[in-house]
Amino acid sequence: MRKYRLFSKKDCLGADAACETAAGPGNKGRIRAAGVILLLLFGFLCARLLFVRPPEERACQENSVNSCQIWYLLNVDGMGGLGHSALLLVDELGGGRIYSYNGMEYNLFWCLLGKEGVGFMREISLDPEERAVFCQSGQLSLSDSAECRDFDRALYREITREEYGTVYQAVQKWIEKEQLWDLLEQEDIPLYHIYTHNCDTAARELIALVDEEVEEYNQSHARLTPGGNFREMCRRLGSGWGIRRLGEDSWKERLLERFLGV
After folding, report:
1. Tens of pLDDT, residues 23-39
2. Which of 111-115, 148-152, 203-207 has the lowest mean pLDDT?
3. H-type alpha helices, the chain
């Protein structure tokens, strides 16, 4: 016959003492602090979702003297959700040239760890019809470069033909892969660095060559991410700049829109 042992009062008191030891003052404090942090984080996320609103679309101020345009493009969910920026130049005939600066040597993991490497400015040419479609849909038919296949937001303004030429000439030194190492030594072009010299800084630096507002923004108000800079520039740049949404957002892009306010 199986025998069963009954717990004595002493056993129960010993178990209570062990529990009190495990949940001593130090452990209780840590549990309480973790709970407060989780509550604060939850409150922050709720506040972002409830109160952060994306900028409203607006047309740029037109000028009969200006015959070209310059665009700051944003891929909201590019680079694993960090965002990707590029530059679009539109000539007087309506054709376009997209310039996208990327690191060539390391993947996202090593870039996030701060590894520097040679960068490459990719050029994508569009005829007037392709450019018109792109400025509505934000999509490009590319077999590579996923960061440039789907842009979601844009800031744009009109520029003169001379200003177009200024930016076009400045960007040429970035394009030839074979010459990049020589250019780095001869002209002191900084290496690609995801935090200090990246797709976003390259696009804004080129725009600043012909726009004093963006030049001042780069010096005083620049943010760390492309999404942060798009949101802040929408707030700070004047009526000469238009704001446009490109194409339809995916579920991921809609979520990032509510969280980032882009």
Report:
1. 555 677 778 777 778 77
2. 111-115
3. 9-22, 25-51, 108-112, 128-137, 161-172, 180-187, 199-208, 212-220, 226-236, 251-260
